[in-house]
UniProtKB/TrEMBL annotation:
It comes from the Eukaryota. This is Smr domain-containing protein. It holds the Pfam family Smr. SMART domains: SMR.
Amino acid sequence: MVKELLGIPLNKTNNNNVTDKEFEELCQALNPEEREGAFEIYCSNNRDIELTCQLLGIKRCSKKGHRNQNTNLNVNREFIRPKAPLIWPNHELQEPAEVLFQIQSHPLVIDIHYYTCAEATEAITKFLTFHQSKKTYSELCIITGKGNNSERKAILKDHVKQLLKNMNIKNNVDPTNAGQILLSLKPQKLKITT
């Protein structure tokens, strides 16, 4: 009936078996009814694969033989778990924690164990810039460590205190833990004298 409506002779023989097979391969993903309808459209277009594929939205490889090439998949049988982002410092390997992950996971605390003074300055600057942009008025904590594992005199805590002093940020050592510095970014009240 569809052939009659489209004007295709019922006894028409397939003169080009190669293109018909190619079109059938292209239509393998379609269900049987859709495949039959697609083939009718293909026949009504005088077996023009390009035109039919455009009408049906079927992607066709431009290079001949490309579809039939075997795809070699390189599958590694061992699953290598990606290294988890380091949030807190690794004391065994003496690796510092990554600043951005610390801010994301524990925004009010930054741990600068194993940082050099230059790295600590950069980390604290990022930490404070983040909180100034968010207008955080909660108490913030910088963990410097007590310096018990330092080869010489611990300098990181003194460096951080001097850095905060230069930034005009009031701070004090945590009375319960000498390895922590507490600070707040609350706007300071101005004393007006008359």
